[in-house]
Specification:
By secondary structure, this protein is mainly beta. The chain has helices at about 10-35, 150-160, and strands spanning about 40, 45-50, 50-55, 60, 65-70, 75, 80-85, 95, 105, 115, 125-130, 135-140, 140-145, 170, 175, 180-185, 185-190, 195-200, 215-220, 225-230, 235, 250, 255-260, 265, 280. The chain is built from 2 helices and 25 strands. The strands form 6 sheets. The protein has a 5-stranded mixed sheet, with no helix packed on it. A 5-stranded mixed sheet has the order 21-20-19-15-25. Strands 2-11-12-24 form a 4-stranded antiparallel sheet, with no helix packed on it. The longest helix is centred in the first third of the chain and has 25 residues, at about 10-35. Keywords: Hemagglutinin, Lectin, Mannose-binding, Repeat, Signal.
């Protein structure tokens, strides 16, 4: 006689299925970790290429907010008011910044495009910054980094009145007399000994200690950083000039100093290049 196998009970089938599932769980978890996902912008006043603003996510600077609303409308509040006019054009919308300097609003499910800022630039690293002047500008591509990853009268008046962002220096602005940019544990100081020093990170510095008196650091309208002395002699510069425009130096969350520009898109309807404008920021004065 042939041996007959005992019938498998439903309980044994369930136990076998559970065992197989437990065996596969580590592989499933690893696969999910390996799926590339855009990072969410966690910085208060800027976002970089590849980052997103989720539904109800925002950039903020003082009392000004740039919000990806739940109704799919992208709105700049309390500054120079602007919106994308996409209210109720989708649900659970997300804003992303591409490596061509383009804003895109798309559905979080399905990825359908709702709106774009349209103008595409060359491929590179970009930064969208909510400025203290109450507008959002997209700057790029990056033209310098401390650690590779990589009407005219009205314009002058605007720049002179521009308040400082704690982590950003804009074209035409100065740092001197121990003034600094700060982002979390990182600080970039234009020291009174003429040395520009980044602390809290990899220790980058301009290596210009003692090379001049009453030195200051300035970002010009060609994306170049200069350390100059009181005779306006150049003590140090970040290198080759780029095209004429508006630039920004950001002290980022990763501890890098990066210059982005020129502006390739702005919430300001007609952008005026601020050529020749001056704004100064000083540290606290020490008593003798």
């Amino acid at each position: 006689k042939e041996a007959s196998s005992a019938p498998i009970s439903p309980r044994h089938l369930r136990l076998a299925s559970m065992a197989n599932l437990l065996f596969l769980l580590p592989a499933i978890f690893l696969a999910l970790l390996l799926v590339p996902r855009p990072s969410v912008a966690i910085n208060p006043n800027y976002m970089l290429s590849g980052e997103t603003l989720p539904t109800d996510g925002r950039l903020s600077s003082g009392d000004t907010f740039f919000i990806m609303q739940g109704d799919c409308n992208l709105v700049l509040y309390y500054g120079q008011f602007w919106m994308s006019n996409t209210a109720n054009h989708g649900h659970d919308c997300v804003l992303s910044l591409s490596n061509n300097g383009v804003f895109t609003i798309h559905h979080s499910k399905g990825g359908g495009v709702v709106w774009t800022s349209r103008r595409s630039s060359v491929t590179g690293d970009y930064a969208a910054v909510l400025t203290p002047a109450g507008m959002v500008n997209i700057y790029g591509p990056a033209v310098w980094s401390s650690r590779p990853k990589s009407s005219a009268a009205a314009a002058t008046a605007d720049a002179n009145m521009l308040p400082m962002a704690p982590n950003a220096l804009f074209s035409g602005q100065f740092l001197y007399d121990n003034a600094s940019l700060i982002n979390k544990k990182f600080e970039f100081v234009m020291q009174s000994d003429c040395n520009a020093v980044l602390s809290g990170g990899d220790g980058w510095q301009s290596d210009t200690r003692g090379n001049g008196r009453y030195c200051f650091l300035r970002l010009d309208h060609k994306g170049t950083l200069h350390v100059k002395d009181d005779g306006y002699n150049t003590v140090w510069s970040s290198g080759k000039a780029s095209t004429l425009g508006d630039y920004v130096l950001l002290l980022q969350d990763d501890g890098r100093l990066v210059v982005y520009g020129p502006v390739v898109w702005s919430t300001k309807p007609t952008h005026v290049t601020q050529v020749g404008s001056i704004s100064m920021v000083t540290g606290s004065k020490k008593s003798n």
